[in-house]
């Protein structure tokens, strides 16, 4: 039974190396000094798969579900940087922040109410450092996707900066449409929103992150200025959902 586990670990390491090389090449093509951060999305993946990625040098992981992150975080090394990248219900903010001391960023803040709940949770948890947050922007206008309208992002970012001292606005996040490679407007939109948010916060646009790009479009996102890509299936293989009862 040990051989398959070793092969899986080797596959994860090889995938990480390949993706890192592709990100570096895409960044070089765009004349960028450095590639974006790689967030390894480990949703539905078992702990040994995460351990294999960690052994290969990966330190930033992303999870979509609160309970899954609460289960995994204590079993992984303390120097892992966790990003929450799924839709977060306000009533789960306290459990998430309290249960994951090394939570580095919540990438999906889409309302002042959620920001306020995270503020309260961060204070209650006694975090030594401010919790990073990204404002999620629905750049495609699809009803099935969460996020604020592009025009509402500056107001939400301003609210967080003014009213949530235990949080820090690190930038913006979006989920591009599936056919991004032929329709780049979602990523172009996020870059434009960053300019508006930077103006509202009176900071240089370069200080705000752009989290955009997933397994199907991370190279294009890197070329268009993404500072953080969220890649899951290209590292760990297809997601493994439990069978329905």
Note down, in words, how this protein is organized.
With 245 residues, the protein is α/β, with parallel strands linked by helices. The protein has one domain (2-236): Alanine racemase (TIM Barrel), CATH 3.20.20. It contains 9 helices and 8 strands. The protein has helices at 2-29, 47-55, 66-72, 93-99, 112-125, 153-163, 185-201, 218-223, 233-236, and strands at residues 37-41, 60-63, 81-84, 103-109, 131-136, 167-173, 209-211, 228-231. An 8-stranded parallel β-sheet has the order 7-6-5-4-3-2-1-8. Strand 5 (131-136), helix 6 (153-163) and strand 6 form a beta-alpha-beta unit. Helix 6 runs parallel beside helix 7 (185-201). The longest helix has 28 residues, at 2-29. The two termini are 28 Å apart. Mean pLDDT is 92; it is low at 1-7.
List the defining traits of the structure above.
245 residues, TIM Barrel, eight-stranded parallel sheet, 8 strands, globular
How many β-strand runs? 8
Name of the top-level CATH class = Alpha Beta
The strand order across the widest sheet is: 7-6-5-4-3-2-1-8
CATH architecture: Alpha-Beta Barrel
CATH superfamily caption: Alanine racemase
**Class of secondary structure makeup:** alpha/beta
Distance between the termini: 28 Å
Low-confidence stretches: 1-7
